[in-house]
């Protein structure tokens, strides 16, 4: 049985105006982008919208999510973006409720773009890695210049009353060389509706970086970094939602995961490149060249064909399926961890049949939040399904696990 695909990441521009050295599209094992057209054509955009609408109608989907992505999607320009959004709306709105978004690095975002997005109902998410020091560690432009001030100008525009309703939140890629409290405080100061912390993409072949020495050197550096942020978030009474922590809270209470990188919920994501080719989750590009490819495209195939692709099915198979390693299936926190992001499990020889390379982070983060809910010896309270924001306070601060205590927890896999 296949799970309906409700989310579409539509690549509208395949190049970028930044040169982030942690980018999964350009800096890992995949070279697909070199053969793609720079900008999606009007013909391709219309065909994508038509195919997705046909699929949504056939599957009787009540709502669908489309995220305009890249590269840097704003490089497509206002005229092409208008055409894409209007075709998506024209085809999809008669059959399903359309949630239309764009994710950008913010460098090109201006009032012209925002007025267009306001007219077309497009919400905006921005990538920002924290304070100036943290952001400029990786997110420089192609001339080696800081992107920080330009991105902050974009965020300031989104915070204005005229555009505040378009502001989705901030996406931050973790670097353990950065001060976690400085990063979190810098992001919360921008009053985002939500913060999403993303583990840097890595595999067992290319494991994540870790400090060589100094005070930051621990056996569990990513767990410690996240723990410090969690403590600050808790101290701030969770004033700004943090998707990573809320996802763990939700799954511990029997609710759904709020992110693909955690939990056992089946993937419902489709990706279409600028040339109309279907891909699996594009995070798979970190594994090897062509890892996300399917051989399908919107001119010869429909979304129902993509939904039946073995790679898509593997990410929908849950705890008993082939998509989860045997070691993960027997893990006590698998319901919250879910084996981690599928791409992070890759190792030459065994493919994706491994625990995540971040296995040392997931149990620690889960136990951290579990203890905050009342201790590891009791079952967390039921999840309030009526609202993802209804998770409530974490409970007694006496039960909260501090970052230094987390270091004494033995993790299943060290990298």
Automatic annotation (TrEMBL):
Radical SAM core domain residues are 2-246
Superkingdom, natural source: Bacteria
Respond yes or no to whether keyword Zinc-finger is given for this record: no
Which InterPro entries does this entry report, sorted A to Z?
A: Aldolase_TIM, rSAM, rSAM_sf, rSAM_SPASM_FxsB, Sulphatase_maturase_rSAM
Q: Which UniProt keywords apply?
A: Iron, Iron-sulfur, Metal-binding, S-adenosyl-L-methionine
The region annotated as signal peptide is: none
Cited Gene3D superfamilies: Aldolase class I
An example molecular function term from Gene Ontology annotations: oxidoreductase activity
The name this protein goes by in its record? FxsB family radical SAM/SPASM domain protein
Annotated organism of origin: Streptomyces himalayensis subsp. himalayensis
């Amino acid at each position: 049985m296949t799970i309906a695909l409700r989310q579409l990441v539509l690549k509208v521009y395949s190049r970028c105006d930044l040169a982030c050295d942690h980018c999964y599209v350009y800096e890992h094992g995949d070279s697909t982008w070199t053969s793609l057209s720079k900008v999606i054509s009007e013909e391709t955009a219309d065909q994508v919208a038509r195919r997705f609408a046909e699929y949504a109608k056939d599957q009787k989907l009540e709502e669908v999510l489309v995220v305009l992505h890249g590269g840097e999607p704003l490089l497509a320009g206002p005229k092409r973006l208008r055409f894409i959004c209007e075709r998506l709306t024209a085809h999809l709105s008669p059959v399903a409720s359309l949630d239309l978004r764009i994710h950008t690095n913010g460098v090109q975002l201006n009032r012209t773009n925002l007025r267009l997005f306001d007219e077309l109902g497009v919400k905006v998410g921005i990538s920002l890695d924290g304070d100036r020091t943290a952001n400029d560690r990786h997110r420089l432009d192609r001339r080696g210049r800081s992107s920080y001030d330009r991105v902050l100008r974009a965020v300031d525009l989104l915070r204005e009353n005229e555009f505040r309703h378009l502001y989705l939140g901030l996406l931050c890629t973790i670097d353990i060389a950065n001060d976690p409290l400085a990063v979190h405080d810098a992001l919360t100061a921008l009053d985002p509706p939500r913060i999403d912390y993303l583990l840097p993409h890595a595999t067992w072949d290319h494991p994540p970086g870790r400090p060589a020495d100094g005070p930051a050197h621990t056996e569990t550096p990513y767990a410690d970094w996240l723990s410090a942020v969690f403590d600050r978030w808790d101290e701030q009474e969770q004033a700004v939602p943090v998707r990573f922590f809320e996802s763990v809270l939700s799954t511990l209470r029997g609710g759904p995961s709020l992110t693909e990188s955690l939990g056992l919920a089946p993937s419902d994501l489709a990706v279409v490149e600028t040339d109309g080719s279907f891909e699996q989750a594009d995070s798979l590009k970190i594994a090897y060249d062509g890892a996300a490819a399917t051989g399908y495209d919107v001119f010869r195939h429909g979304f129902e064909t993509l939904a039946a692709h073995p790679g898509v099915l593997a990410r929908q198979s849950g705890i008993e399926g082939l998509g989860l390693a045997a070691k993960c299936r027997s893990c006590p926190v698998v319901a919250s961890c879910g084996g981690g992001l599928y791409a992070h499990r890759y190792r030459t020889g065994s493919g994706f049949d491994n625990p995540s390379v971040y296995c040392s982070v997931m149990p620690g983060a889960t136990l951290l939040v579990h203890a905050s809910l009342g201790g590891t010896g009791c079952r967390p309270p039921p999840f309030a399904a009526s609202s993802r924001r209804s998770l409530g306070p974490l409970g007694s601060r006496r039960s909260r696990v501090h970052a230094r205590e987390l270091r004494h927890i033995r993790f299943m896999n060290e990298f």
